Task: structure prediction
Amino acid sequence: MFVDMPPGTGDVPLTIFQSLPVDGIIIVTSPQELVSMIVGKAVKMAQMMNIPILGLVENMSYAICPDCGKEIAIFGQSHLEETAAKHGIAAMDKLPMDAALSSLCDSGSIELFEGDLLGGVVKALDELVGNAPKKAPKE
Result:
């Protein structure tokens, strides 16, 4: 089960950590430099409560130009790799801003989304739990 929580280290995460058996957390960040301070607090809280940190995901990392297909860093360049390295956690994925996805979320129809935005997260989670695709044996 996934529990989506608001950013920060307030009452909601603390209550969840104390109330549910948590196998691990994925910390979500964004490209703004100030957010790395919030990530640091979340990492410290998880460590103090002995909650494993599975990795770091950067949301709103970029947008795709509808005309040329170029990635545009609306909120500035990504800090995912350096933030993950600073805290010794895995950088899992960078998620784009996607108007179609937002629209489906707003309408309560997220299951209709056709895309692979969480491919890197799924792969990382599969590897963590030992479900990574097996390589074909060499003959």
Notes: The mean pLDDT is 83. Strands lie at 25-29, 53-64, 71-72, 91-97. The domain at 11-122 is CATH 3.40.50.300 (Rossmann fold).
